Amino acid sequence: MSFHCQFVYFLLSFLYLCRGMEKAITYQELWRRLAPVYGGREAKAIAQLVFEQRYGLTLPDLYMGRDEALPQQELAGIARRLEQQEPVQYVIGEAVFCGRRLKVDRRVLIPRPETEELCRWIAGEAAAGQRQDGRLSILDIGTGSGCIAVTLAAELANSEVTAWDVSAETLAVARENAARAGVSLLLEQVDVLDARLPSTASYDIMVSNPPYVCQQEKTDMAPNVLAYEPHTALFVPDDDPLLFYRAIARYGEKALKAGGRLYFEINPRYVRDLENMLGAMSYRDIETRPDQYGKQRMTRAIR
Question: 273: which residues sit within 8 A by CB, 6+ positions away?
């Protein structure tokens, strides 16, 4: 064999061995790659979420090594996106909310646990007060992924849920999530800041998780939220933090039935301002509750 052929053979053999030495992206390898970015504990939680939701593998499956035969090219892409601090829910395209898997992407905010608490509050009060023959009319303003609307439609039998959003692209995501959950929603493209809102509706419940983060609060927010989640669904002007709450509450004065309930997810910084505003309008029995982290996060008022 000539020297040239020997060299080529050696080079090919070396490359083959190197390829065999490349680490497969298993659960262990993924969280170790992510640890410098997120810290070890969060990196493990993110890696577990990827393998559970994307590939259906439980922790026992991972410990038994069933993550070793997964598509490596896809996993490499997932790892790169996570290393760039893209939220894991966008990377895998799903978020679990109240036990349901919802589609999420950069058109919508990622549903949060505190919003689940708001849904449980609404559903609990509605179920307790609903007559057997009564049909609940519900309006979700700023529906985003549809997480609130889908949850209430699924958990409150004999309810009719309307969901508004200013964005047609966002409504497309909500429509897909309604189909996934097997519920019916009336989806409408409506800007709640528009003075020409319909005045003939009569709702039992209105709910909104509107934009409530002031621009000045950006410095306190995680980089992955600022870089990836839609700012129009997050931020309000510093000089008018109650912009959306005021518009929705005014509409509720016309659109809620007597005794109807208005629910908000809120910015804890402006709880008292919101309560005072609602008290100065035609609302009573105003109640604010904390979330699981102890932050004042949800307000309910009765028309």
Answer: 241, 242
Q: Helix 271-280 and helix 243-255: axis angle, to 10°?
A: 30
Strands (E), the chain: 94-97, 100-103, 136-141, 159-165, 185-189, 203-208, 213-214, 235-236, 256-265, 284-290, 296-302
* DSSP 8-state secondary structure symbol assigned to residue 106: T
H or E segment and range at residue 58? none
Residue type, 86: E
215-232 tens-digit pLDDT: 777 777 777 777 787 878
Q: pLDDT digit string (tens) for 66-101?
A: 988 899 999 999 999 999 999 999 999 999 999 999
Contact partners, residue 188, CB within 8 Å, separation at least 6:
162, 163, 164, 171
* Residue 295, token pair as written in the block: 């932050």
For CA atoms 146, 151, 154, 159, the dihedral sign is negative
The 8-class DSSP code of residue 110 comes to: P
3-state secondary structure of 43: helix
pLDDT of the residue at 131: 53
Number of H helices, E strands in the chain: 12, 11
Where do runs of H (alpha helix) occur along 107-204?
Answer: 113-129, 147-155, 168-181
For residues 103 and 94, give the distance between their C-alpha atoms in angstroms, rounded to a whole number.
5
Proportion of the chain above pLDDT 90, given as a percent: 73
Best CA proximity match to 159, nearest among 100, 207, 228: 207
Q: What is the pTM of this model?
A: 0.87
pLDDT tens digit sequence for 12-28: 444 444 444 456 899 99
Q: Would you give the end-to-end CA distance of the chain in angstroms?
A: 92
d(CA 270, CA 268): 5
DSSP state letter for 166: S
**In this structure, what token pair is assigned to residue 127?**
């179920």
